[in-house]
Amino acid sequence: MKKYLLGLLVLTLLVPHATWAQKRKPIDAQATPETRALYKNLRKLSKRHTLFGHQHATEYGHGWAGEPDRSDVKSVTGSHPAVIGVDFSGFSGRSPEAIRQDREALRQNVVDTYNRGGVTTVAWHFPNPVSGGGFYWKDSVSLPAVRYLIPGGQAHETYKEILRTIGDWAHSVRGADGQLVPVIFRPYHEFDGGWFWWGKPHCTREEFIALWRFTVSYLRDSLQVHNFLYAFSPDNNFHTQAEFLERYPGDEWVDMVGMDNYADLGRDRYAVDTAALKLRVVSDYARKAGKLAAFTETGLESIPDSTWWTGTLLKAMRTHRLRLAYVLVWRNDIRSPTHYYAPFPGHLSVPNFMKFYDDRYTLFEKDLKNIYGKKR
Predict the structure, then answer these.
(1) Which of 169, 281, 299, 353 gives 20 to 30 Å between its CA and that of 17?
(2) Residue 301 annotated in active site
(3) Are 276 and 264 a contacting pair, CB within 8 Å?
(4) For 308-345, how does the pLDDT look when each residue is reduced to its tens digit (9 = 90+)?
(5) What is the pTM of this model?
């Protein structure tokens, strides 16, 4: 009897540990070794650090485009961002030749980032596949496409064809070591707002969850894409965990949870404490569920506040003991004199950005050591 009770006690202690260990892995049981390593290393690094990211950082910047190994961040600090944001926006709704060119340019960009040791995250500003209006919702033009794309919908086969384009691309991105490049795929972001056709006013909770689950399942299980991590990121229209998870598809369908928040960090108001509490909701849920967490989009257009990097952004991320894999600011437009979110040489926020860069909490590409390897 004593042996039986001892064995039962051991089993009771081991089962939660096994469940927790199982959680701390990608949702794809067949994820490539490099993808599993990226997941594991981001989780480890987030205990003490956060990677800095910039959207379209190496594709173009303030007043330039298409120059090899250039980014505005590198021009300022000597290092590229640790995370480079790209987009699948050009993979549909265009001519076959335009799509082919976009796929190849994106493939090269992602491979170059991997070869340097950096990380790629992919957003998807998906042009409405059943109506005009592009990826934004436009009254009297846009159709609520989600109901058309899910299984049983009129455009379901069209959606599968678009996903096959993404799947083919995913199989084509191989680094100099011959391995498939892992990417963090972040589809249908800011779904709690109404500005995109997949937003909350344009589909039911059940429709959105069905779209998410089918997207992951078709890429992973039907198309055998095993180098994606899947990131779930609403905008900042929540204050509680229940609100944050309103359209959550379930732990078995998500690798990373995040938040996009421009409003609380200067665009609409300076509410650093509010932003910090929302980040805490994201980070706390990630820790409880065994997921990664990230500040998936933020920034202040034109950065008119010369101390924004440490006085606002870093303060929001460090008010609480958070575990955030990365923070990503939005793009620097090629032509616009005002649409930019990272500094360039001569910008008034450069001195403060260098303090942000030098802080031990933030990591840039030069700081990453073998993030796709098993040992750190």
Answers:
(1) 281
(2) no
(3) no
(4) 999 999 999 999 999 999 999 999 999 999 999 999 99
(5) 0.93
